[in-house]
Each structure stands twice: as structure tokens, then as C-alpha cells.
Design goal:
21% strand; globular; 19 strands; single chain; alpha/beta; FAD/NAD(P)-binding domain; 473 residues
Length: 473
């Protein structure tokens, strides 16, 4: 019998499996697909490789959570520092988001001049710097006593950032600037949407500030594609089962049975890296199903439409671009597309002289449920995004070797997840209403981007560290 069974090999699942293994526990990790990483993995098609979804890697620097966890599991990733972290193209304006404040600010202020710009961005920078000095706070959700005690650990943080936590980001920004033109506001909102996964009106300014400041932290390109990260993270996990779908879990008094197609495994404790609003489907136990059912309302149906391309070009490209247009893309909920390129100098992920491109735009999974219009809508959006990317980045049509799209239905088919991007830290989904890493069910836990603390590498890793504390590991 295993000490821990981890179901799902996304950022949270792979990391907690590795961390517990490093602590001496007997751990087994299950992944439905042949690739580890879930929506942050890599895959191959037509002889070319692509990163599946999220392609930014941040938090790997001194004093930050990703580096802390990686050091605990003795893993050093193969990275290339990317600076600027992102190149933002909006109309005729190009803003390079350098890590150095003054270098970035000079470009920003030239493109979007405003008398209060420096005061605003210095405030954003300071909030980001001060946030990472806080420690000791944690979140528990097993019962009202443990939750209340854990919330008290946030008192110093709440006291420090209270005025930013209580104000919605849209109103705060409008009040701060007084008058801000539509284009500049669209720039800010598109930057926040990349990280926070929600519009400004739905989040507090503290969340918005951390989102705007992520490029002031160190960002990296992952050599060999994101799958190499997960292979490295899990290399010391006792058992890793790929192409192994857990179909149901049965709770007993002192252990759980995990049922696969042809095998049954036993574990004292189970950690789920599935979405909190879909985890109940794995159980027939009414108490467990009722617990997860109350979180089904958190499914905001937000997802991503992906366009994958391979191009042959000798030109130099940055690792990440964001292209913002005036109007919302059809069949989406966004005016911006995020475009990531492989590194020109590495040949493990794309052949020399070629680039692997992953482009994403926010959508609603319900837009893709109608079978009759599905193919036409998919083709329409593929063509629009492809044409825009080629035009804005100066790529010729005959340089495109391969291109294809993926919708929320595609992700649901391969990773059993139509909602992507995690649960945004909105006013409706904030402490103490946020799902926790622990549950009222003995020895059943959660990790990932739909529970504490947030989405993205730093957010999910904070949840991994939080779960480690709750487990006493």
C-alpha cells in the first residue's frame, strides 16, 4: 500500500509527488496521457513539437516559491532567461516589458503618456517587491476551526495591503488616473488577463498589481519544451504511471482504492490534481460528492482557443508577444492573443531554422458545444488568428510549415478538462471562500489551479507548499 496516490501530473500534482518522495514517502503518480504536465505539457504532431498551453515560466529566482520547491526536490531546470518577458503590440504601439523598471517605463510612458504613470507603476513595483517578503501565512479548509486559525495567519498581509485588497481594480485604476484613455486601459486589462484570468472589474487591485508586475520578476524560456520540466520534476518519484486513467476512487476507513481499467491500487492518502468542481465524479461516496458539488458553481467555463504553428524562418523573434486589437475575436471573450516562440538557438524542441509557435486566446467552453457549427467556427478563428499573427510579426505565408487549432473540446478529450486557466482570484472566489488544499474528508487533498492559492507556476506552487505544511511533511 502506498503512502500517497497523486491523480494528475499537472504543475501541482507533479510537484507535490516529487516533494513527498524527497521527504521519504512512498508515492505513486497517475497520468491519463502519455505526456506529463496536463495543460502545461508538450506534444508532437506531424513530426513537430509544441507546448500545449501556458508557455511562461516565472518564480524561479531567490526568495520565490518555484525555486524553493525545485531546490527541495533537487531539480535544476535547463532555462534561458527571457527579457523582455513579453512584447505587447497594440495598434501601432510596441511595448517591450523589460524586467528593469526604468528601461520598461521609458517605453511605456512614450506609448501611453500620463502625468501619473510613474507614481502608478512605482506603486505596482513596490507591491510586488513587498509581497514576496511575507511568509508564515497558510490556508486550511478542513473545518471551521482550522480555517479560522489559518485566516489569522494572513492578518499581517491584510494589514499591509488592505487598501488594495478592498478596492476593485477597475475603480481603483480609474480613480488613480482620473482620466485614462480607452487604449491605455485596454493595455492594462490585457496585461492583467494573462495572469489573473479575469477582467479588472472582477478582481481587487492587489491581484491586478501582482499581475501587472509579473514581468518585473525573472521569466524564463524552458529549453526542450515544458515536458522536460515535468520529466525532471518527477524523476525521483517512486512510481509514475503514464497512460493510466483513474476511473473511480473508493474510500475505506483507513485507505483508498484507486480503480483503473485493469488494475486497482491502494493508498493511505489521495491527492487530486483535477479541477475542484469535477473531482466529485471520481467517487460514489455521498459525503465526498456533496463536498465537491458545492464548488461546481466555480466553473466559469473559461477556456482557451489554441493555434499551433511551425514556421521556417531565419529571422529573430522574441519568446513572447501579446497582440491586442480593437474588437473582441469571434467565439472568444478577449481582444488579445498571446503568442509564444521557441528559442532560435536550441534544436531539441524545433529543428534548426524552424520555430514552434503556441498562440492562445481566452474563450468560453460553451461556445464550442454546438456540433453543427463547431468546425466552421474553429476554422474561422484559426484563419483570423493566423492572419493577424503573420501580419503583425512579419511572417510570410509560405514560411508556415504546419498549423492547426484546438478548442476546449480538444482539451476535454485529451486531458478531461474543458475549463482552463484555473479559478481567478475574484471577489466571488476569495478568502475565506476559496477551496483549500485539504478537505473535511480524512486523508483526501487537492492541489492545482482551482484551489488555494492561484493559477500559474507561482500560484500553484504556493498551494504545493501550503499542502506540504498541512500534511506535516
Amino acid at each position: 500500500m502506498k503512502d500517497f496516490a497523486v491523480v494528475g501530473s499537472g504543475i501541482g500534482g507533479s510537484s507535490i509527488a516529487a516533494l513527498l518522495s524527497a521527504k521519504g514517502y512512498d508515492v505513486i503518480l497517475f497520468e491519463k496521457e502519455p505526456y506529463l504536465g496536463g495543460c502545461s505539457s508538450s506534444f508532437s504532431r506531424g513530426g513537430y513539437s509544441y507546448n500545449t498551453g501556458a508557455t511562461t515560466f516565472a518564480g524561479y529566482e531567490e526568495g520565490h516559491i518555484v525555486k524553493e520547491i525545485f531546490e527541495l526536490i533537487d531539480f535544476k531546470p535547463d532555462l534561458i532567461r527571457t527579457d523582455p518577458s513579453i512584447v505587447v503590440i497594440q495598434n501601432e504601439k510596441t511595448t517591450l516589458r523589460y524586467r528593469d523598471f526604468d528601461q520598461f517605463f521609458e517605453i511605456l510612458h512614450s506609448n501611453y503618456p500620463h502625468a501619473k504613470n510613474r507614481a502608478f507603476w512605482e506603486m505596482v513595483y513596490k507591491i510586488n517587491q513587498e509581497f514576496y517578503t511575507f511568509s508564515g501565512h497558510y490556508y486550511a479548509n478542513a473545518n471551521i476551526f482550522s480555517k479560522t486559525r489559518s485566516l489569522l495567519s494572513f492578518v499581517p498581509l491584510f494589514s499591509k495591503f488592505k487598501k488594495y485588497l478592498l478596492a476593485d481594480a477597475k475603480s481603483f485604476i480609474e480613480d488613480f488616473f482620473g482620466i485614462i484613455d480607452k487604449e491605455y486601459f485596454g493595455f492594462l486589462e490585457s496585461q492583467v488577463l494573462i495572469v489573473a484570468q479575469a477582467p479588472l472589474r472582477e478582481i481587487n487591485f492587489f491581484t491586478a498589481a501582482l499581475s501587472l508586475a509579473y514581468t518585473f520578476n525573472e521569466n524564463y524560456y524552458v529549453k526542450g519544451g515544458f515536458s522536460t520540466l515535468f520529466d525532471g520534476i518527477t524523476k525521483r518519484v517512486g512510481e509514475v504511471h503514464r497512460k493510466s486513467e483513474v476511473r473511480s476512487i473508493v474510500r475505506h476507513s483507513e485507505y483508498f482504492e484507486l480503480h483503473l481499467k485493469d488494475e486497482v491500487f491502494k493508498a493511505k492518502k489521495v491527492i487530486l490534481n483535477s479541477t475542484v468542481y469535477e473531482s466529485g465524479k471520481l467517487f460514489s461516496d455521498s459525503k465526498i460528492k456533496d463536498y465537491y458539488k458545492k464548488y461546481e458553481k466555480l466553473d466559469n467555463h473559461q477556456s482557451s482557443f489554441m493555434l499551433y504553428m511551425t514556421i521556417k524562418s531565419e529571422r529573430d523573434f522574441h519568446h513572447h508577444y501579446q497582440i491586442i486589437q480593437e474588437n473582441q475575436f469571434p467565439h472568444t471573450i478577449s481582444k488579445a492573443v498571446f503568442v509564444s516562440f521557441s528559442d532560435k538557438e536550441e534544436s531539441r524542441f524545433a529543428p534548426k531554422g524552424y520555430y514552434s509557435i503556441t498562440a492562445s486566446v481566452h474563450t468560453d467552453s460553451r461556445y464550442w458545444e454546438d456540433k453543427e457549427s463547431y468546425k466552421a467556427k474553429k476554422r474561422e478563428l484559426e484563419d483570423i488568428l493566423k492572419a493577424l499573427i503573420l501580419e503583425k510579426l512579419g511572417i510570410e505565408k509560405d514560411e508556415v510549415v504546419q498549423s492547426f487549432g484546438a478548442t476546449s473540446k480538444t482539451f476535454d478529450r485529451y486531458i478531461k478538462r474543458a475549463q482552463l486557466g484555473g479559478n481567478a482570484m475574484t471577489f466571488k472566489n476569495f478568502l475565506p471562500f476559496l477551496p483549500g488544499n485539504d478537505t473535511p474528508i480524512k486523508n483526501l487533498y487537492n492541489v492545482g489551479d482551482t484551489v488555494f492559492a492561484a493559477q500559474g507556476w507561482p500560484g500553484v506552487m504556493l498551494g504545493v507548499k501550503n499542502l506540504q505544511r498541512l500534511l506535516g511533511a
